[in-house]
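Batch manifest line 344
LIGAND: magnesium ion
JOB: complex structure
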Amino acid sequence: MPSQEPVVVIRDLSKHYGEFIALDRLTLTLERGNILGFIGPNGAGKTTTIRILVGLSRPTSGSATIAGADCVRDLHKVRRLVGYMPDKFGSYDNMRVREYLDFFGAAFGIRRRERQKRIAQVLDLTNATWMQDRFVESLSHGMQQRIGLARTLLHNPEVLILDEPANGLDPEARIEMREILLRLASEGRTLIVTSHILPELSRICNLVAIVAGGKLRAMGTLAEVTRELSQKQTIEIQFLNASRLEAASQRVQQILGQETELTISAAESIVRCRTSAGEEKLSGLLRTLITEGFEISQFREVAGDLEEAFISAAREADAERAAASGRSASAPVSSKGVAAEVTV
Ligand SMILES: Nc1ncnc2c1ncn2[C@@H]1O[C@H](COP(=O)(O)OP(=O)(O)OP(=O)(O)O)[C@@H](O)[C@H]1O
Ligand SMILES: [Mg+2]
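JOB STATUS: finished
ARTIFACT:
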């Protein structure tokens, strides 16, 4: 498969549990080497999507492929290509970290000698070598997360799918997890990461997909997603020096109008504008400021607030749900709707 082909292709993917639609015709593609933040409110359909991608759940309709391998038909290939870290850690009594990794390495069919090498490598990658003789059960949650990640790396997968890897980690452990994930991406792997810790996520992801109510609400760079879901964008105008900052900000306010919120940072010589002004108006603003002799060093859009975009997607889903329940009074999940799932 040529490397410019998207590595993950999801088309019209739906998952129904009885009457309840957990996933509604989700379509997205992901090119190699990206880190995608897959976010959305509780019950949005993130884990449902992920479980289909790794072959633990079958879609009701639609398709998903990873590096050309179909997530239903070519499960063997998919499992080789993907490292999956679930949101819940299993329980492994009386197993030391090294034995635990050896067990999973063997399950992946990695030969003994190669296995020893891989175990040493993944322990090193996750800064967990010092834990190798500890019992898994005796490790703290954060340490177990690292071992969980080490396990997903054993067969050297090119795609990593991590469901809430930073969940329950203290700030220091989160920074460490972030560094590990960035290191893995820099090796050319593709990562899909879910998290509710949005500021954290926005620091590692170059792409974001927001799902709510089983539907994809937006996908793109952080700036694109926040622009699409928020009514306003943030523009930063940096001046060569702060001497005419006050005059400049008055001019900006006049041109962009009262609905634009301005904040001035004298220390950085920056005027920040939260505005719904279109491209033409912004280009006119830049022209005017330059013509009037303001010395501008930077004029750029900055990524908006992911939290705001998240809330707006959640509200959209809530409004749809309210409208739908007005049309039909069906309960979301009946006991009949709870489907048995494949487990490994
Ligand atoms: N086996 C199942 N049977 C019935 N409904 C299910 C099943 N699994 C998931 N659901 C429902 O599908 C919806 C999506 O769940 P999912 O676990 O994908 O959400 P999520 O986005 O991962 O949420 P969270 O942020 O809480 O992890 C939820 O309403 C959930 O109750
Ligand atoms: Mg989930």
